Amino acid sequence: MAEQAILCVDDEQLILMALKSELSEAFGSRFLYEVALNADEALSIIAELKSDGIELMMILSDWLMPGIKGDEFLGIVQERYPGIKAIMITGHANAATIQKALDDGRIVAVLNKPWDSKELIALILAWCFGNPEGSH
Q1: What is the CATH number assigned to the segment(s) 4-129?
Q2: What are the domain boundaries of the chain?
Q3: Which of 28, 34, 35, 39 has its CA 20 to 30 A from that of 48?
C-alpha cells in the first residue's frame, strides 16, 4: 500500500473522477488517491490518513463548494496540519481571495478549470519532489 496520498476535494463527482484518473495515469501506485465532495468529508479523510500513518503530500481543492469555500477549508488544514501543500483548481474564484491564499501559504498554485493535465502533474512533481520556485 502507498505510504503517501493525494486528496482531491470538489463538489462535482465528474471532476473528482477525472482528477483521480489523471493522477493514477501519471503516478500509478506511487500514491493513494482519495476524494471528498466537501470540506467536512475531506477533513475526516485527512484525520484518518494521519492516524493510519499515511503522509498527505498534496490537496487539490475547488474554491466554490457548498458550505466551506476552498480557501477557508485550506486555512483549517494549514492550522491543523502545517506543511501540507495545496493547489486550487477552480472555475469560479475571487482573484483577491486567491491571491491572499497564495500569500498566506494556504495554496502553492492555482489552476483554472478546465485545467491542463500536464501543468497539474508538473506542479505536483515540483511541489512534492522538486524545487517549486517559480512553479506558480
Answers
A1: 3.40.50.2300
A2: 4-129
A3: 28
